[in-house]
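Field reference: sequence -> structure
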Amino acid sequence: MPILVQKFGGSSVSDADKISAVAERVVAARQQGYDMVVVVSAMGETTDELIELAHRVHPEPPRRELDMLLSVGERISMALLSMAIQQRGFDAISFTGSQSGIITNDRHSDARIIEVRPFRIQDELCRGRIVIVAGYQGMSYKREITTLGRGGSDTTAVALAAALNAESCEIYGDVDGVYTADPRAVPEAQRIDSLDYPEMQELAESGARVLNATAVEFAKERGIGLFVRRADGHGGQTLVRQHPPLGPGRVVGIAHEASVHLITAASPEARFGLLALLDEQAIPGKQLSLHRFGASYGTAVVVSREHLPSAEPCRQRLAARFGEAVRLDDELGAVSLIGAGINQSFANIRRALQVLDEQRIRVEALHTSSFRITALLPAEQLEDALRALHRVFIEEPEPGETC
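Structure field:
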């Protein structure tokens, strides 16, 4: 039988009734003739609650121990879903990431999958069982428990779909697809029927939480179509696959991050020291820019809040090592316009800056790629910027313009 991989997010399994509803959906797919592999996230806000608990006992929890703690959440979900399926008369078995054969590097809290050995899953599918897998986790080549970072259950699902040669991979959550902006911040946001892999990857990396960027990268490499749907079956869907972009230079969506950190260094010596310190602390940067004007040097590194939840300890370390030569600003947000060929001219950048200027929104920094324009702004002005840019680029695009 063909293999179908389904992934259910935390909101889909947040209580016993929702777990029962997921079990019904899984059983229905099994009755349609699929061998089923189901990946689950932790229930509801379990991961956030565990992180908060960890910070109550240690201001900067050791990443290895944090992985040991956080991996518990998905194990609860997988066992309960397996029970719910068995109660409906179908044979099911649950596996942790390590039992599923997911091998990662040894980077705690943000590991990358380097290999999938799904032998136990294949054996159980041959026995007619539905296999439930704990998302977000794996085992390093050193036999340590690791987690895959925010949205890592998506990566688990796509990696397993690739390793098992699955027919497709379905991602279920609390929205019926990918929208042109976060509907909670922009009520006028519109669902996008289909997206190219690079556009979806840029949206995910820029803060859209519907799909994980690494999962999209996996899907792109293996040519796996991703169906993003609502867990309760209502609404439509978004299909992510390889296809020509909707129009070069056109903004297809706007993503945002409510909180990012901007770390700046004012000298070459501080620059090298700053980058070395970030590596020592295993803190990855989203953006890095270097510049020199005459005798003046500047280095700026953007770090996501998920990689630096508490700015104050880092600020103190920076001050102790560099004095006033390095500064950390943690009162910023980021808004990103996404679209293939978005920077083939400066038209979109000029228009975006004009919109922000009209709204009296101060731009602290601007970064671009071939698919993205990202502005760093004061956090308190972020939602105003998001709505204004969505109105101009999505809701009311000017006639005859590619954007």
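Note: The two ends are 45 Å apart (CA to CA).
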